Amino acid sequence: MSIVTVQLGQCGNQIGHEVFSAVCSDVHGTHGLCSKKENESYHDACKERFFCQEESEVPVARAVLVDMEPKVISQTLSVAARSGCWKYDDRSHFSQKQGSGNNWANGYSVHGPRHKEAIMNLVQKEAEKCDRLGGFFTIMSMAGGTGSGLGAFVTQCLRDAFPTSFILNHIIWPYGTGEVIVQNYNSVLTLSHLYQSSDALLVHENDVIHRICAQLMNIKQISFRDVNQVIAHQLGSVFQPTYTVEGGSHYSRNPLGIDWQVRPPQPGSCIPSSRSTNKPLHFNTSIANLVILRGKESHSVDLGSFQDPSLYTSWLNPQDAFNAWRTPRAFNKYEKSAALVSNSQFLLKPLDSVVGKAWNMFASKAYIHQYTKFGIEEEDFLDSFTALEQVISSYSIL
């Protein structure tokens, strides 16, 4: 099954390019401990998932590129084409000389409705190229203007146009020190809207990735490309096909692979308390964990500790909340690798911080006029605060 990737804004387009580059590099890399037949099967599953089977000398990414700055789109198309390994379809992009700056409301209320038909036509064409459409993968910043505001609008349009398709939103959490003055407003509005229309949110925190570059990779002068490449590698390691032996050797074609519970129960639901005197005060309780092991010794690793009931809320069976995928096929240049995708309380602290900072600004009416002039009223802010406070409450009682 195939994924249609939707790259939104400068951040989304730059990371999207790095993701396709990482995937393409993996396809042409070592096959690890797989047989030749298994490796060919892996190649076929990967190409169906990420690339179109068009008459082209190089693979063509299944992607729609959207930005209000034509320069970003042009650079992204050009860099991909120059690689000689893969490229974008020159017809699958939309841009206008109408930069939205850092205003979420401009992207959501103005550019979104104005360009809805053109953007969704591109998405529809990419979807129709798929023999088996599995879902959509959007990539965007949470704090900017186009990526967050237009991204939230496009996600709602995807939900309306493809009600049964899986929608996974990948969002970049802004640096805590701040990128733009209204980033907390943009973040609150983005998260609250995506929570209503997305099936799952996959989050990367800029601060965390920056520490990986500095402490684990020992990069002295860290660039945005360094950060984006780390993010792309992690995404690729999660989304590449995984080998299974159920019913015979084959590669899993579940395109997004998220078949575990992604949302906590709504406040007010009848749920037994999971509070345990054995748990530390700041214990990170999970709703679900997925471990992906690739390469050497992947099938011999003992993952029994991930089924410890203390890791999960009391109303979930650990066997239902934990999943593991294993493949002897190595990813890129690494002999063996592991990835953990966790739906847990880990984001409670940064989420609470963003909501708190945005509320403090809202209480003093700071910069509200920048949103109201584009049709976002104070009631919209209050609704967003309420929605996220409910999310915080739900995760807090896990």
Description:
The model is unreliable at 245-255, 257-267 and 269-277 (pLDDT under 50). The radius of gyration is 21 Å and the shape is globular. The chain starts with a strand and ends with a helix. The strands form four sheets. It has a six-stranded parallel beta sheet with strand order 5-4-1-6-7-8, with helices on both faces. It has a three-stranded mixed beta sheet with strand order 12-11-13. It has a two-stranded antiparallel sheet with strand order 2-3. The relative contact order is 0.14. Strand 9 and strand 10 (250-251) form a beta hairpin. It has helices at 9-27, 36-50, 70-83, 104-128, 146-161, 183-197, 206-216, 224-239, 318-321, 348-363, 369-372, 378-396, and strands at 2-8, 51-52, 60-61, 63-67, 93-95, 133-141, 166-173, 200-205, 243-244, 250-251, 286-295, 322-327, 336-344. It has 398 residues and is of the alpha/beta class.
